[in-house]
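Justification of resources, computational component.

The compute hours requested in this renewal are based largely on the per-chain cost of generating structure records like the one below. Each record pairs the submitted sequence with a full structure-token output. That output is archived, and it is also reused by downstream analysis tasks.
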Amino acid sequence: MKRIAVLTVLASVTAVSAASATSITLFSGTGSNVAAITPVRDSFRLAIGGGTTAGANGSFGGVRREINWDGVPDAFSAPNSFPANFFNVNSPRGTIYSTPGTGFQVSANAASGTPIDFGNINPTYPTTFAAFTAPRLFTAIGSNITDVNFFVPGTTTAATTSAFGAVFTDVDLAGSTIEYFDLLNNSLGVFGVPFIAGNETFSFLGAVFDSSVIARVRITSGNTALGPNEGGGVDLVVMDDFIYGEPTPSAVPEPASLVLLSTGIAFAVRRRRAKKA
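The structure output for this chain reads:
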């Protein structure tokens, strides 16, 4: 069975404030193998800005960033924990992760002697999941929620990006999503990851905004944290490649309420001074 479903949608959502809006182009697709989903991944790459990938370390002014997990060393791979700031400290690419769970894990390389595809957590997982770019995959532990915050690579300076997308494996049911947030933590939209029946399948979802407004994304992968066998309504999902625009520094916009308050205070001060004069 081979399926390609490429969907491109234009939509308007509330962005930084109630007075401004931005357009979003969504890219999504499913496939039973790597070749089936590669075209939608490539279309997303091109929409961000062409074929030049920004370097791994520091800020190069590049058009996009990619994380495929495969270069993560064994010391930070299963069964060991993966540092949430690895891709802003060890290999600075401007992302730091958080989760309501207990941490993160990157799956093992077969040469390490640890079972691949999170087989160290459950021996059925190597026939449930598959790597889009072999050998490693990524997941939260103790939760199906992953938050990705953006920073100027290698710094603690908050940043925004104009695009973010991810490859998922084994999305069987509706419910996996990516939600996008601005610097004020306003939701810019929540979009469903497409699903396809079967094991070791692939799904892709990405969104390109018309400006750099994304400060954080929340990924919901499946409906259950890793541990149990899949089936009976339990949908287990893990992730592979993350693709996103170069994180750039962005000042936090002043909320409209604060603007109105400061304007009102200034008016009151001027009025009082006028009365005294």
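Residues 256-276 form the longest helix (21 residues). DSSP finds three helices and 15 strands in the chain.
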